[in-house]
Amino acid sequence: MLKNRNTRVTAEEIIALIKETLAEERHVRSENVVIVPTYNEANILKPLVLRILQQGPFDVIIVDDNSPDGTGEVAEQLAEHFPERVSVLHRTGKLGLGSAYVAGFRSALALDYQRIFTMDADFSHDPGSLPALRGALDGAEVVLGSRYVKGGGTRNWPLRRRLLSRSGSVYARLALGLPVHDLTGGFKGFRRQALEALLPELETMHSNGFAFQIETTYLCSRHGFRIVEVPILFEDRVAGKSKMNRRIVVEGLWVVWALRLHKKTARIHREAHETHAQTRLPLGRLMAVFMAFVGLAIILGSLILAPRWSTLLEQAGPRHPVSPSRPRYVLAPHRRAGTASSAALLHPTTLQIRGSDLTPNVPLSIVGAGFLPHEPLQVTIQNHAGRVQAQLAPTIADTTGHFYTTGVVPANLAPGNYLVVVEGMNSHYKAQASFELHWIAPTVQLDTYSVKPKQGFRFAGSGFLSGEQVEISLVAPDHGSAHVLATVRANAMGYISGSTTVPMLSQGNYSLVFMGQQSQTPATVGFNIQPLNPWVVLSTYTPSQNTRLGFNGQDFAPSEQVLVYLNEQPGQSRHADTTGQGDVVARIQTDANGNFSLPAYWQVPAMSGQNTLVFVGQQSGAVATVSFIIEP
């Protein structure tokens, strides 16, 4: 069932969470929603959802297949922080990608979304492309994020996967007669009318894995929907494990063949003359069989040969757009006196970094080749003067002299250009690659931007340095006095989260400043303090003498003492006792919300006529006045 309910939150799971509301605004459900199927994506789901929400009016539906790594709990935490923008659909087990999308489609239609998008949960699809896909839907019913049109491409993908994707798209395109270049991608957008027409057929689809993407696009074409391709840059997943396997490839082969034989090509279906299509059916089926065998040969060949080709190309050097080193020839030092062999004097090494523009605390993936088998390797970050700025974890080359390692860019590195240098501890072969380091401007979001004195609010932010102390201050409108509210520590990824309470301050607009004590880079948020407007209701306004009168009050400061005066303002009382005319007649303690409810609390004295009770908050200074008439 679809739920947005509370869940347990641990310190390790706290991340930067975004609220796109201002103090005077309330969120209205967007017309756009992004469906994200998940299975074992706990480490990457939070920053992904954050990035989606940053793109504008896009809500999120997470469909989790009971991930054993706790992805469902992470999703519930996000739904708790964004109750109007993030929904979670929990399923009992790993039921397949296709059925996950169908479940998400049903939920999106039930929630009355007008534009529905789908994307992977591993950052291979850039959320920054969502506005472009949304814009394309203004003139089409279906939009595809395409790697294989002008302006699109792939990044950091091994040769085997590129061959598999390319050949699979070509095979499906030829077999099904579709005028679409990228049939295997999952970054898509649909107008509501298209999904409503497709939904009955989606329930009886042949595929449930990645072939679902091919069959969905095929059905859209058969219905005559206009399909537009928008160029995207597809990047290999930054976390988790790929779900691609041989079973999925085989499913893609037979699904395309089954669609071609049973439903004919999309081109034939679009022809107006059904009889003409039927006369071409035998030839069409024969062509489908031929193309199926050709596609099978291409894909199976890529599965067998691509790993070998990938290894050879990796040895020869890296490919754009990774940040590579050119083959570096170094002299091997002599371990003993004598002359080294000519083969040892000159040796090529290569190194590549995934990504050339990096930020602190992000994963750093390094691939290299040309070292000795099983050789220990030292990994350092150096400036261009050759001075070591950071030491990363050492690694070991494999039996072919290759290695792959990951680390984290240290948070204390200043912005600038750096080198990753890998050195063999036995051979002293070296390889290096450059990268540029940028700061991430810290950002903070609140669960509310307007409170009353002594009330609390929750905050969440990102972009601070790992482990640094962040001081939270409330600055007056004239930028004069600053009130320090709290100090929190950023986690290893630079995220902060917590809650604090506003002190007793006058109403008005303030600036809430989150200052990293190490980075000295502030994140500032506008904040409003509302006035207190206390009021009190009596149990009766015409009590008799010596009867007991009850009080119900609201909107005083939380947990403050309220003095009750009879017939005069505070400061005029002549006596310190709590009885008698003109004195403090009661002392009341408000609850955590600034309210109190006291039935039959004060005994009316022997007096008559109209009288006044004045309730004065001792911390806030808030005053509420109530008149009543004592009957003789």
Describe this structure in words.
This protein is an alpha+beta fold. The protein has 4 domains: 2-302, Alpha-Beta Complex (Spore Coat Polysaccharide Biosynthesis Protein SpsA, Chain A), CATH 3.90.550; 323-331 and 347-437, Macroglobulin (MG2) domain (Immunoglobulin-like); 443-529, Immunoglobulin-like; 535-630, Macroglobulin (MG2) domain (Immunoglobulin-like, Sandwich), CATH 2.60.40. The strands form 8 sheets. The protein has an 8-stranded mixed beta sheet with strand order 1-4-3-2-5-8-6-9, with helices on both faces. Strands 11, 12, 13, 15 and 18 form a 5-stranded antiparallel beta sheet that branches. The chain has a 5-stranded mixed beta sheet with strand order 14-20-19-16-17, with no helix packed on it. The radius of gyration is 34 Å and the shape is flat.
Q: How many domain modules?
A: 4
Instruction: Please bin the fraction of helical residues.
Output: 10-25%
Q: Which class of secondary structure composition applies to the elements?
A: alpha+beta
Q: Using DSSP, what is the number of strands? A: 35
**Outline type:** flat
State the end-to-end distance.
Answer: 64 Å
CATH homologous superfamily descriptor of the largest domain: Spore Coat Polysaccharide Biosynthesis Protein SpsA, Chain A
Rounded to an integer in angstroms, the radius of gyration calculated over CA atoms is 34 Å
Largest sheet: 8 strands, mixed
CATH class category name of the largest domain: Alpha Beta
Architecture of the largest domain, CATH level 2? Alpha-Beta Complex
- Supply the number of helical segments: 12
Uncertain segments are 1-28, 264-281, 305-347, 570-581
Mean pLDDT: 76
In percent terms, what proportion of residues is strand?
A: 25-35%
